[in-house]
TrEMBL record:
Its EC number is 2.1.1.320. Arginine methyltransferase involved in the assembly or stability of mitochondrial NADH:ubiquinone oxidoreductase complex (complex I). Acts by mediating symmetric dimethylation of 'Arg-118' of NDUFS2 after it assembles into the complex I, stabilizing the early intermediate complex. It catalyses: L-arginyl-[protein] + 2 S-adenosyl-L-methionine = N(omega),N(omega)'-dimethyl-L-arginyl-[protein] + 2 S-adenosyl-L-homocysteine + 2 H(+). This is Protein arginine methyltransferase NDUFAF7. InterPro entries: NDUFAF7, NDUFAF7_sf, SAM-dependent_MTases_sf. The keyword Methyltransferase applies. It is found in: Mitochondrion. Its main location: mitochondrion. Belongs to the NDUFAF7 family. Gene3D superfamilies: 3.40.50.12710. It is an enzyme of class 2 (transferase). GO terms for molecular function: protein-arginine omega-N symmetric methyltransferase activity.
Length: 367
């Protein structure tokens, strides 16, 4: 009965709107990022594009358009698309957007529960778990994915760490409430690493990052994570949205988007040094480094009506304005250590940062 398994409320008519839904430029620049990394790695003959939690499928759709435009560059490369999606309803929406509905469902014993061919002629597969995606050189994308995964909340008390739990309110019918565990719990024993008084930990995100790091270390590729979040500094970020308005997380469970900021310092830690990490860097800086201004100019020049031009400018402002999505969204990447041959593994962050060889990341914020 989960929120996403029943469809999730992405888009203007729903509960929240995301960057790929706001502007086509967003996905296009991420497509360019993948191509740029693929070239930097010597154009491997095979690559997989893997998206975690693709929502309505818009990001992959915009990336596919870029791949199609660069078809001659990619002509000798065997490209395939792999989507990790738990929601059957959103899986259907993605299939319609990306293949025009030309998909087949697979029997239970197959790892991919659905497969087809994209409108641009590329094989595409759906899975419930990252573990099911075949090994191989891959670009992993996670846009507003990690913030949707469940967290544990903890509070420090005089008696030690306690877990914040959800309980049925004994006094009010049909009402939930937060309580503190009376003693320590398995989660307080295992997940606490902080000196702060309140913390949120998302162990599922840690497990997925570990898997991505292992895959990238072994088979090459990269992971690009974009989400709102912090670098280990925030404490209480768990919140709900319904109809684009804040919503009490305990009210009408399953009907609102529940989310918590991504702790990038935790993700970095969970790579266990298997890969290098870049960022987090603010969305407006990443997109600027990727050439969003130039792309906007081209689209403005090619559009002849005022309405389209206004729409382009408005969506640019939504993505880039520090008061809107420009500052609170961050980009973070996992890359193989071989991508930085001039640095050894023990390299400490530089005092004077050189320019990163990885598109979008500007200064080398390598950790
Ligand atoms: N990336 C999209 C959608 C973000 S919403 C965008 O930016 O527009 C989160 C997405 O993750 C939804 O597609 C949801 O169904 C999916 N999701 C949530 N939990 C998941 C899990 N445990 N495994 C795989 N997908 C999950």
């Amino acid at each position: 009965q989960g929120y996403y398994t029943r469809g999730g409320g992405i888009g203007e008519s729903g509960d929240f709107v995301t960057s790929p839904e706001i502007s086509q430029i967003f996905g296009e620049l991420i497509g360019i990022w993948c191509i740029s990394e693929w070239i930097a790695m010597g154009k491997p003959k095979v690559f997989q594009l893997v998206e975690l939690g693709p929502g309505r499928g818009t990001l992959t759709d915009d990336i596919l358009r870029v791949f199609n435009q660069l078809a001659s560059l990619l002509s000798k490369c065997d490209v395939s698309i792999h989507l990790v999606e738990v929601s059957p309803k959103l899986g259907e929406t993605q299939a319609l957007m990306l293949t025009g509905g030309k998909v087949q469902s697979n029997p239970e014993d197959k790892s991919a529960y659905m497969q087809g061919v994209t409108k641009t002629g590329i094989p595409i597969f759906w899975y419930r778990d990252i573990q099911d995606v075949p090994a191989g050189y891959s670009f992993y994308l996670a846009h507003e994915f990690f913030d949707a995964l469940p967290i544990h909340k903890f509070q420090r008390t005089e008696k030690g760490w306690r877990e914040v739990l959800v309980d049925i309110d004994p006094e009010v019918p049909d009402q939930l409430r937060f309580v503190l565990s009376p003693s320590s719990t398995p989660a307080t024993e295992n997940f606490i690493q902080a000196r702060r008084d309140h913390v949120e930990v998302c162990p599922e995100a840690g497990v997925i990052i570990q898997r991505l790091a292992c895959r990238i270390e072994k088979d090459g590729g990269a992971a690009l994570v974009a989400d709102y979040g912090h670098d280990g500094t925030k404490t209480d970020t768990f919140r709900g949205f319904r109809n684009h308005k804040p919503h009490d997380v305990l009210k009408a469970p399953g009907t609102a988007d529940l989310t918590a900021d991504v702790d990038f310092s935790y993700l970095r830690k969970m790579t266990q040094g298997k890969t290098a990490t870049l960022g987090p860097i603010k969305q407006r800086e990443f997109l600027k480094n990727m050439g969003i201004d130039l792309r906007l100019q081209v689209l403005l020049q090619n559009s002849h009506d005022t309405e389209t031009r206004e729409q382009l400018l408005h969506s640019y402002d939504m993505l880039m304005n520090p008061e809107k999505m420009g500052d609170c969204f961050n980009f973070f990447a996992l890359l193989p250590h071989q991508r930085f041959p001039h640095l050894d593994k023990k390299h400490k962050p530089e005092l004077k940062s050189p320019v990163s060889p990885v598109a979008g990341f500007g200064e080398l914020l390598l950790k």
